[in-house]
Specification:
single chain; about 425 residues; Aspartate Aminotransferase, domain 1; Aspartate Aminotransferase, domain 2; 13 helices; globular; binds pyridoxal-5'-phosphate
Protein backbone atom coordinates (compact mmCIF):
# COMPACT_ATOMS: atom_id res chain seq x y z
CA UNK A 1 0.00 0.00 0.00
CA UNK A 2 1.21 3.52 -0.76
CA UNK A 3 0.84 5.04 2.69
CA UNK A 4 0.92 8.63 1.39
CA UNK A 5 -1.94 7.85 -0.94
CA UNK A 6 -3.90 6.24 1.94
CA UNK A 7 -3.30 9.24 4.20
CA UNK A 8 -4.59 11.58 1.49
CA UNK A 9 -7.95 9.84 1.96
CA UNK A 10 -8.15 11.21 5.54
CA UNK A 11 -8.71 14.98 5.83
CA UNK A 12 -7.32 14.95 9.36
CA UNK A 13 -3.77 14.65 7.96
CA UNK A 14 -4.10 17.96 6.16
CA UNK A 15 -5.22 19.79 9.32
CA UNK A 16 -2.34 22.17 10.01
CA UNK A 17 -3.11 22.15 13.76
CA UNK A 18 -2.64 18.36 13.92
CA UNK A 19 0.44 18.24 11.68
CA UNK A 20 2.69 16.66 14.29
CA UNK A 21 0.09 14.35 15.80
CA UNK A 22 0.34 10.58 15.65
CA UNK A 23 -2.89 8.60 15.95
CA UNK A 24 -2.24 5.30 17.70
CA UNK A 25 -5.70 5.25 19.31
CA UNK A 26 -7.60 3.43 16.54
CA UNK A 27 -8.80 0.52 18.71
CA UNK A 28 -10.98 3.03 20.56
CA UNK A 29 -12.03 4.85 17.39
CA UNK A 30 -10.31 5.41 14.05
CA UNK A 31 -10.13 8.65 12.09
CA UNK A 32 -12.92 8.98 9.52
CA UNK A 33 -11.97 8.59 5.87
CA UNK A 34 -13.04 11.36 3.49
CA UNK A 35 -15.45 9.12 1.57
CA UNK A 36 -17.28 8.48 4.83
CA UNK A 37 -17.38 12.14 5.91
CA UNK A 38 -18.61 13.18 2.44
CA UNK A 39 -21.37 10.54 2.44
CA UNK A 40 -22.58 11.70 5.87
CA UNK A 41 -22.59 15.34 4.81
CA UNK A 42 -24.43 14.49 1.58
CA UNK A 43 -27.12 12.66 3.60
CA UNK A 44 -27.60 15.80 5.70
CA UNK A 45 -27.73 18.23 2.78
CA UNK A 46 -29.21 16.47 -0.24
CA UNK A 47 -31.93 14.24 1.17
CA UNK A 48 -32.52 15.02 4.79
CA UNK A 49 -35.90 13.39 5.31
CA UNK A 50 -37.38 10.66 7.45
CA UNK A 51 -38.06 7.27 5.88
CA UNK A 52 -41.23 5.91 4.33
CA UNK A 53 -42.62 9.06 2.65
CA UNK A 54 -43.89 9.21 -0.94
CA UNK A 55 -41.74 12.22 -1.80
CA UNK A 56 -38.30 12.35 -3.44
CA UNK A 57 -36.03 13.16 -0.48
CA UNK A 58 -37.61 10.43 1.64
CA UNK A 59 -37.29 7.78 -1.04
CA UNK A 60 -33.65 8.78 -1.68
CA UNK A 61 -32.97 8.50 2.04
CA UNK A 62 -34.54 5.02 2.02
CA UNK A 63 -32.40 3.92 -0.93
CA UNK A 64 -29.30 5.14 0.85
CA UNK A 65 -30.07 3.01 3.95
CA UNK A 66 -30.67 -0.08 1.85
CA UNK A 67 -27.41 0.49 -0.08
CA UNK A 68 -25.55 0.68 3.22
CA UNK A 69 -27.28 -2.52 4.36
CA UNK A 70 -26.24 -4.30 1.15
CA UNK A 71 -22.64 -3.09 1.48
CA UNK A 72 -22.58 -4.21 5.14
CA UNK A 73 -23.93 -7.64 4.12
CA UNK A 74 -20.94 -7.96 1.78
CA UNK A 75 -18.61 -6.81 4.54
CA UNK A 76 -19.88 -9.55 6.91
CA UNK A 77 -20.29 -12.06 4.03
CA UNK A 78 -23.92 -12.46 5.16
CA UNK A 79 -26.29 -14.86 3.41
CA UNK A 80 -29.04 -12.22 3.07
CA UNK A 81 -29.18 -8.42 3.25
CA UNK A 82 -32.07 -8.64 5.78
CA UNK A 83 -29.61 -10.15 8.24
CA UNK A 84 -28.00 -6.74 8.84
CA UNK A 85 -29.38 -4.65 11.72
CA UNK A 86 -28.29 -1.09 12.44
CA UNK A 87 -28.15 0.27 15.98
CA UNK A 88 -26.61 3.05 18.03
CA UNK A 89 -23.40 1.14 18.80
CA UNK A 90 -22.25 -2.39 19.66
CA UNK A 91 -23.13 -1.98 23.35
CA UNK A 92 -26.70 -0.87 22.71
CA UNK A 93 -27.25 -3.60 20.10
CA UNK A 94 -25.99 -6.18 22.61
CA UNK A 95 -28.36 -4.92 25.32
CA UNK A 96 -31.18 -5.06 22.77
CA UNK A 97 -30.48 -8.63 21.58
CA UNK A 98 -29.71 -9.95 25.07
CA UNK A 99 -33.09 -8.70 26.34
CA UNK A 100 -34.82 -10.16 23.33
CA UNK A 101 -33.17 -13.60 23.81
CA UNK A 102 -33.90 -13.41 27.55
CA UNK A 103 -37.64 -13.55 26.87
CA UNK A 104 -37.46 -17.29 26.22
CA UNK A 105 -35.06 -18.20 29.05
CA UNK A 106 -36.01 -19.55 32.47
CA UNK A 107 -34.32 -19.60 35.88
CA UNK A 108 -31.56 -22.22 36.00
CA UNK A 109 -30.70 -21.91 32.29
CA UNK A 110 -26.98 -21.38 31.75
CA UNK A 111 -25.03 -18.81 29.75
CA UNK A 112 -21.28 -18.85 29.04
CA UNK A 113 -19.13 -15.69 29.04
CA UNK A 114 -15.37 -15.29 28.64
CA UNK A 115 -12.63 -13.59 30.63
CA UNK A 116 -11.24 -12.32 27.31
CA UNK A 117 -14.22 -10.10 26.50
CA UNK A 118 -14.68 -6.34 26.43
CA UNK A 119 -17.23 -5.35 29.09
CA UNK A 120 -19.83 -4.66 26.36
CA UNK A 121 -20.12 -8.40 25.81
CA UNK A 122 -20.21 -9.17 29.55
CA UNK A 123 -22.33 -6.63 31.46
CA UNK A 124 -25.48 -6.97 29.27
CA UNK A 125 -25.45 -10.76 29.82
CA UNK A 126 -24.68 -10.50 33.56
CA UNK A 127 -27.62 -8.12 33.98
CA UNK A 128 -29.87 -10.49 32.05
CA UNK A 129 -28.68 -13.39 34.23
CA UNK A 130 -29.39 -11.36 37.33
CA UNK A 131 -32.89 -10.39 36.20
CA UNK A 132 -33.85 -13.87 34.97
CA UNK A 133 -32.10 -16.18 37.46
CA UNK A 134 -29.65 -17.59 34.90
CA UNK A 135 -26.44 -19.42 35.87
CA UNK A 136 -23.26 -17.81 34.50
CA UNK A 137 -20.25 -19.96 33.55
CA UNK A 138 -16.91 -18.59 32.37
CA UNK A 139 -14.40 -19.62 29.71
CA UNK A 140 -11.16 -18.70 31.50
CA UNK A 141 -8.34 -16.53 30.19
CA UNK A 142 -5.27 -18.42 28.98
CA UNK A 143 -1.98 -16.71 29.93
CA UNK A 144 -0.10 -18.48 27.10
CA UNK A 145 -2.45 -17.46 24.26
CA UNK A 146 -3.64 -14.16 25.82
CA UNK A 147 -7.23 -15.02 24.85
CA UNK A 148 -9.96 -17.33 26.13
CA UNK A 149 -9.18 -20.99 26.63
CA UNK A 150 -11.20 -22.72 23.90
CA UNK A 151 -9.73 -26.10 24.81
CA UNK A 152 -11.89 -26.43 27.92
CA UNK A 153 -15.15 -25.37 26.25
CA UNK A 154 -16.33 -29.02 26.23
CA UNK A 155 -16.25 -29.13 30.03
CA UNK A 156 -18.24 -25.88 30.37
CA UNK A 157 -20.89 -26.04 27.63
CA UNK A 158 -23.68 -28.61 28.15
CA UNK A 159 -27.35 -29.15 27.36
CA UNK A 160 -28.39 -26.49 29.90
CA UNK A 161 -26.31 -23.85 28.02
CA UNK A 162 -28.54 -21.44 26.07
CA UNK A 163 -26.16 -18.66 25.03
CA UNK A 164 -22.38 -18.46 24.55
CA UNK A 165 -21.01 -14.89 24.22
CA UNK A 166 -17.52 -14.76 22.70
CA UNK A 167 -14.84 -12.25 21.85
CA UNK A 168 -13.35 -12.57 18.33
CA UNK A 169 -10.23 -10.51 19.07
CA UNK A 170 -9.14 -9.24 22.47
CA UNK A 171 -8.90 -5.43 22.40
CA UNK A 172 -6.04 -5.39 24.95
CA UNK A 173 -3.75 -8.28 23.97
CA UNK A 174 -4.78 -8.47 20.30
CA UNK A 175 -5.27 -12.26 20.38
CA UNK A 176 -7.64 -13.61 17.74
CA UNK A 177 -9.77 -16.27 19.44
CA UNK A 178 -10.94 -19.51 17.86
CA UNK A 179 -14.66 -18.83 17.37
CA UNK A 180 -15.39 -21.78 15.06
CA UNK A 181 -14.06 -24.30 17.60
CA UNK A 182 -16.36 -23.07 20.39
CA UNK A 183 -19.32 -22.58 18.01
CA UNK A 184 -19.07 -26.24 16.96
CA UNK A 185 -19.31 -27.35 20.59
CA UNK A 186 -22.15 -24.92 21.37
CA UNK A 187 -24.15 -26.10 18.35
CA UNK A 188 -23.97 -29.73 19.55
CA UNK A 189 -26.02 -28.60 22.55
CA UNK A 190 -28.29 -26.20 20.64
CA UNK A 191 -26.82 -23.08 22.31
CA UNK A 192 -26.80 -19.71 20.51
CA UNK A 193 -23.43 -18.07 19.87
CA UNK A 194 -23.06 -14.27 20.04
CA UNK A 195 -19.72 -12.83 18.81
CA UNK A 196 -18.19 -9.42 19.48
CA UNK A 197 -16.12 -8.67 16.35
CA UNK A 198 -15.56 -4.98 17.13
CA UNK A 199 -11.80 -5.35 17.53
CA UNK A 200 -11.36 -8.02 14.86
CA UNK A 201 -13.24 -6.30 12.03
CA UNK A 202 -10.72 -3.50 11.21
CA UNK A 203 -7.82 -5.99 11.11
CA UNK A 204 -9.18 -9.20 9.60
CA UNK A 205 -11.49 -10.58 6.94
CA UNK A 206 -14.90 -10.96 8.53
CA UNK A 207 -16.78 -13.99 7.19
CA UNK A 208 -19.78 -14.97 9.28
CA UNK A 209 -20.35 -18.04 7.10
CA UNK A 210 -17.09 -19.58 8.34
CA UNK A 211 -17.75 -19.03 12.04
CA UNK A 212 -20.77 -21.24 12.68
CA UNK A 213 -22.25 -18.68 15.06
CA UNK A 214 -25.64 -16.91 15.23
CA UNK A 215 -24.81 -13.24 15.78
CA UNK A 216 -21.77 -11.08 14.99
CA UNK A 217 -21.57 -7.44 15.95
CA UNK A 218 -19.13 -4.64 15.14
CA UNK A 219 -18.79 -0.84 15.14
CA UNK A 220 -18.31 1.52 12.21
CA UNK A 221 -16.28 3.99 14.32
CA UNK A 222 -13.42 1.44 14.50
CA UNK A 223 -13.70 0.99 10.73
CA UNK A 224 -12.92 4.52 9.54
CA UNK A 225 -16.61 5.49 9.63
CA UNK A 226 -18.91 7.39 12.04
CA UNK A 227 -20.42 6.16 15.33
CA UNK A 228 -22.78 3.37 14.31
CA UNK A 229 -23.29 -0.24 15.42
CA UNK A 230 -23.89 -3.07 12.92
CA UNK A 231 -25.21 -6.50 13.81
CA UNK A 232 -25.48 -9.63 11.69
CA UNK A 233 -27.89 -12.36 12.76
CA UNK A 234 -29.02 -15.62 11.12
CA UNK A 235 -32.22 -14.82 9.22
CA UNK A 236 -34.37 -17.76 10.48
CA UNK A 237 -33.45 -16.78 14.03
CA UNK A 238 -34.19 -13.08 13.46
CA UNK A 239 -37.56 -14.05 12.01
CA UNK A 240 -38.52 -16.11 15.05
CA UNK A 241 -37.31 -13.72 17.76
CA UNK A 242 -39.64 -11.40 19.61
CA UNK A 243 -37.89 -8.03 20.01
CA UNK A 244 -39.01 -5.13 22.19
CA UNK A 245 -40.62 -2.91 19.55
CA UNK A 246 -43.28 -0.29 18.98
CA UNK A 247 -46.63 -1.73 17.84
CA UNK A 248 -46.79 0.04 14.45
CA UNK A 249 -43.23 -0.99 13.47
CA UNK A 250 -43.20 -3.58 10.69
CA UNK A 251 -42.81 -7.05 12.23
CA UNK A 252 -40.04 -8.28 9.91
CA UNK A 253 -36.25 -8.37 10.21
CA UNK A 254 -34.27 -6.19 10.13
CA UNK A 255 -36.84 -3.44 10.77
CA UNK A 256 -38.42 -5.01 13.86
CA UNK A 257 -35.05 -4.70 15.66
CA UNK A 258 -34.37 -1.08 14.62
CA UNK A 259 -36.17 1.02 17.19
CA UNK A 260 -36.93 4.71 16.63
CA UNK A 261 -35.65 7.03 13.91
CA UNK A 262 -32.45 5.74 12.35
CA UNK A 263 -29.20 7.71 12.41
CA UNK A 264 -29.24 8.12 8.64
CA UNK A 265 -26.17 10.33 8.45
CA UNK A 266 -24.11 7.71 10.30
CA UNK A 267 -25.47 4.87 8.18
CA UNK A 268 -24.57 6.87 5.04
CA UNK A 269 -21.08 7.40 6.51
CA UNK A 270 -20.76 3.65 7.07
CA UNK A 271 -21.52 3.13 3.38
CA UNK A 272 -18.74 5.62 2.56
CA UNK A 273 -16.31 3.71 4.82
CA UNK A 274 -17.05 0.44 3.00
CA UNK A 275 -16.59 2.24 -0.35
CA UNK A 276 -13.17 3.27 0.96
CA UNK A 277 -12.24 -0.39 1.69
CA UNK A 278 -13.36 -1.31 -1.84
CA UNK A 279 -11.21 1.49 -3.22
CA UNK A 280 -8.15 0.07 -1.39
CA UNK A 281 -8.96 -3.34 -2.90
CA UNK A 282 -9.01 -1.88 -6.41
CA UNK A 283 -6.06 0.44 -5.94
CA UNK A 284 -3.65 -1.82 -4.03
CA UNK A 285 -5.22 -5.29 -3.82
CA UNK A 286 -4.91 -6.10 -7.51
CA UNK A 287 -8.70 -6.30 -7.86
CA UNK A 288 -10.23 -5.67 -11.27
CA UNK A 289 -12.41 -2.53 -11.46
CA UNK A 290 -15.52 -4.58 -12.23
CA UNK A 291 -14.95 -7.34 -9.68
CA UNK A 292 -17.66 -8.06 -7.11
CA UNK A 293 -18.15 -5.99 -3.97
CA UNK A 294 -17.10 -8.80 -1.60
CA UNK A 295 -13.98 -9.47 -3.67
CA UNK A 296 -13.01 -5.79 -3.49
CA UNK A 297 -13.56 -5.66 0.29
CA UNK A 298 -11.48 -8.83 0.81
CA UNK A 299 -8.68 -7.45 -1.41
CA UNK A 300 -8.79 -4.16 0.52
CA UNK A 301 -8.60 -5.92 3.89
CA UNK A 302 -5.76 -8.15 2.62
CA UNK A 303 -3.71 -5.05 1.69
CA UNK A 304 -4.44 -3.49 5.09
CA UNK A 305 -3.42 -6.67 6.93
CA UNK A 306 -0.09 -6.78 5.04
CA UNK A 307 0.67 -3.15 5.84
CA UNK A 308 -0.34 -3.43 9.51
CA UNK A 309 1.65 -6.67 10.00
CA UNK A 310 4.90 -4.96 8.85
CA UNK A 311 4.36 -2.18 11.38
CA UNK A 312 3.36 -4.68 14.07
CA UNK A 313 6.73 -6.47 13.64
CA UNK A 314 8.62 -3.18 13.80
CA UNK A 315 6.78 -2.05 16.93
CA UNK A 316 7.27 -5.35 18.77
CA UNK A 317 10.96 -5.46 17.85
CA UNK A 318 11.43 -1.85 19.00
CA UNK A 319 9.64 -2.39 22.32
CA UNK A 320 11.45 -5.68 22.95
CA UNK A 321 14.74 -3.80 22.76
CA UNK A 322 13.66 -1.73 25.79
CA UNK A 323 14.44 -3.75 28.91
CA UNK A 324 12.02 -1.58 30.94
CA UNK A 325 9.01 -2.67 28.87
CA UNK A 326 6.81 -5.80 29.18
CA UNK A 327 4.52 -6.62 26.25
CA UNK A 328 1.27 -8.41 27.17
CA UNK A 329 0.48 -10.50 24.10
CA UNK A 330 1.99 -12.68 21.38
CA UNK A 331 5.42 -11.46 20.24
CA UNK A 332 7.11 -14.40 18.43
CA UNK A 333 7.21 -13.87 14.63
CA UNK A 334 5.53 -17.26 14.09
CA UNK A 335 2.49 -16.16 16.16
CA UNK A 336 1.77 -12.77 14.62
CA UNK A 337 -1.01 -14.14 12.40
CA UNK A 338 -2.82 -15.05 15.64
CA UNK A 339 -3.12 -11.43 16.73
CA UNK A 340 -4.18 -7.95 15.65
CA UNK A 341 -1.70 -5.03 15.46
CA UNK A 342 -2.82 -3.72 18.86
CA UNK A 343 0.05 -3.93 21.32
CA UNK A 344 -0.39 -3.43 25.04
CA UNK A 345 2.57 -3.03 27.36
CA UNK A 346 3.58 -1.80 30.78
CA UNK A 347 6.71 0.09 31.86
CA UNK A 348 8.47 -1.29 34.93
CA UNK A 349 7.60 0.69 38.06
CA UNK A 350 5.96 3.57 36.16
CA UNK A 351 2.21 4.09 35.96
CA UNK A 352 0.71 3.68 32.47
CA UNK A 353 -1.16 6.95 32.96
CA UNK A 354 2.12 8.82 33.32
CA UNK A 355 3.58 7.27 30.15
CA UNK A 356 0.40 8.05 28.17
CA UNK A 357 0.49 11.64 29.45
CA UNK A 358 4.16 12.11 28.46
CA UNK A 359 3.46 10.67 24.99
CA UNK A 360 0.40 12.92 24.61
CA UNK A 361 2.64 15.93 25.30
CA UNK A 362 4.79 14.79 22.36
CA UNK A 363 1.71 14.60 20.10
CA UNK A 364 1.38 10.81 20.33
CA UNK A 365 -2.23 9.87 20.99
CA UNK A 366 -2.93 6.47 22.51
CA UNK A 367 -4.99 4.90 25.28
CA UNK A 368 -3.99 3.58 28.65
CA UNK A 369 -5.94 1.88 31.44
CA UNK A 370 -8.18 -1.16 31.30
CA UNK A 371 -9.68 -0.21 27.91
CA UNK A 372 -13.06 -1.46 29.16
CA UNK A 373 -11.66 -5.00 29.46
CA UNK A 374 -11.25 -5.28 33.25
CA UNK A 375 -11.47 -9.11 33.14
CA UNK A 376 -8.40 -9.32 30.88
CA UNK A 377 -6.49 -6.78 32.98
CA UNK A 378 -7.29 -8.79 36.14
CA UNK A 379 -6.07 -12.02 34.53
CA UNK A 380 -2.83 -10.29 33.48
CA UNK A 381 -2.46 -9.36 37.18
CA UNK A 382 -2.22 -5.65 36.43
CA UNK A 383 -3.67 -2.66 38.27
CA UNK A 384 -7.36 -2.72 37.33
CA UNK A 385 -7.56 1.03 36.62
CA UNK A 386 -4.04 1.89 35.42
CA UNK A 387 -3.87 -1.23 33.23
CA UNK A 388 -1.67 -0.99 30.14
CA UNK A 389 -0.44 1.45 27.51
CA UNK A 390 -2.05 0.44 24.22
CA UNK A 391 -0.52 1.16 20.81
CA UNK A 392 -3.06 0.64 18.10
CA UNK A 393 -1.83 0.42 14.51
CA UNK A 394 -4.31 1.33 11.77
CA UNK A 395 -4.31 1.41 7.97
CA UNK A 396 -3.08 5.04 8.03
CA UNK A 397 -0.20 4.42 10.48
CA UNK A 398 3.16 5.11 8.81
CA UNK A 399 6.64 3.74 9.51
CA UNK A 400 7.63 7.23 10.56
CA UNK A 401 4.79 7.24 13.16
CA UNK A 402 6.19 4.06 14.68
CA UNK A 403 9.78 5.37 14.61
CA UNK A 404 8.69 8.57 16.39
CA UNK A 405 6.71 6.57 18.95
CA UNK A 406 9.69 4.27 19.65
CA UNK A 407 12.16 7.14 20.05
CA UNK A 408 9.71 8.91 22.37
CA UNK A 409 9.55 5.71 24.44
CA UNK A 410 13.37 5.68 24.77
CA UNK A 411 13.26 9.15 26.31
CA UNK A 412 10.82 7.83 28.93
CA UNK A 413 13.21 5.15 30.22
CA UNK A 414 12.75 5.13 34.02
CA UNK A 415 15.75 6.05 36.21
CA UNK A 416 17.05 2.92 37.90
C1 LIG B 1 -13.74 -5.26 21.63
C2 LIG B 1 -14.81 -4.23 21.82
N1 LIG B 1 -16.08 -4.63 21.98
C3 LIG B 1 -17.08 -3.77 22.14
C4 LIG B 1 -16.85 -2.41 22.17
C5 LIG B 1 -18.01 -1.47 22.36
O1 LIG B 1 -18.35 -0.92 21.12
P1 LIG B 1 -19.32 0.35 21.00
O2 LIG B 1 -18.49 1.55 21.34
O3 LIG B 1 -19.75 0.34 19.57
O4 LIG B 1 -20.44 0.15 21.95
C6 LIG B 1 -15.55 -1.93 22.02
C7 LIG B 1 -15.27 -0.47 22.08
O5 LIG B 1 -14.20 -0.06 22.44
C8 LIG B 1 -14.50 -2.88 21.82
O6 LIG B 1 -13.23 -2.47 21.66
Amino acid sequence: MDINCIRQQFSVFSDINLKNSIFLDGAAGTQMCTRSVDASVKACINHNANLGGLFMTSSRAGTEIEEARKASAHFFNAYETEEIIFGQNMTTLTYNISRCLGRSLKPGDEIVLTQSDHESNISPWLELANDSGLIVKWLPFNLCTYGFDASIATSIINDRTKIVALNYANNVTGTINDIAQVSTIAKKFGALVYVDAVHFAPHGILDVQSLGCDFVVCSSHKLYGPHQGILWGRLDLLESLLPYKLRPTINKPPYKFETGTKNREAIAGLFGAIEHLKWIGKEFGGCAKHSGVREQIVAGMTSIIKHETCLLKKTIKGLQAMEFVTIHGYTAPSTLHLRTPTISFTVHSVRSELIALQLAKKGIFLWHGNNFSPETIKQLKLDDQDGVIRVSISQYTSEEDIERFLSAMYTLRPNT
